[in-house]
Amino acid sequence: MNSLSLFNGVGGVSGLSPVSGLQGNGSSQDASIANLLNDIAKLIDGSGSGQGAGTSGAAAGNGNAMSQFLSDLAAMLSDPEGTGAQNSAGSQGSGAPLGGNNNFTTMPGNAAPASGAGNGTSMPVSTSTPSSANSASSSGAAPQGLSTAPQTQALSPAQSKQAADAYVSNLQKDFGLTKDQAAGIVANLWHESGGMNSGINQGGKIGAPGSNMADDNANGYDIAQWGGTRKQGLIDYARQHNLDPSSEAANYGYLKQELQTSQAGAIAAVKGTNSAQAATQAFCNAFEQPSDPQMASRLGYLNQILA
């Protein structure tokens, strides 16, 4: 709408009388009407200093400016001689011109643009933040007490005990096991890995996994001596979580994944026991399934874990 339409109902603002309905004589009245019409024109045409807001609080500012406009109009209608007398609280002082341009500086089309906005276009403000869950997943955050660093040398006895304690604690928390039940699982892992070494190849070499993926008694890898498709599963898990496959975090994470899915029966077997020794045997039979259990060795490591 342009300013010419003002003469047919004050810019189409609902509830306002047409300009042609105003009465009064004299240069003061003429000047007042002219000032008022200029302000209405700027209001409707969107002229003035800047366009478009889109910030919080704009609605309140618009409401205040409209109130001022209505106040100016009412004052002019009640003062057709243009004497400038004002009756409302907070209005302009005596003698001030009616309908001054400053009355509409916060109306739509005149507010200062929000950052990044211009030409009357309101820019939405994003309040989203990166999902912390997604960040932790992509960074491969370590289980409590377990390292994300690759293993490059065999653990000392003290380091083996520290890793075993961390495994016990995490297994209790993640699967609702008793300490004896969790210790039975870890006793098997200690036996398989030569002392909780997460980066051990079958035969004793520490470091990256060997390239042979055969599922036999010569190419196992890591804390549980995974072979074949399960060894490849560990490598894939580590890659997906930005971890080194020899790290404690990758080993525990993949173990947990298996125990929640394809090897859930092993957890059920362990939960059905009421002693650490029984838990050790149950996990060996359900999860490791070795050709030679060497149970005496596994139970010996169990005593070290519980000590």
From TrEMBL:
Domain Phage tail lysozyme: 168-301
One Pfam family of this chain: Phage_lysozyme2
InterPro entries assigned: Phage_lysozyme2
Biased amino acid composition, Polar residues: 145-158
Ranges of compositional bias, category Low complexity: 82-91, 108-143
Region ranges (Disordered): 78-158
Protein name: Phage tail tip lysozyme
Organism: Paraburkholderia sabiae
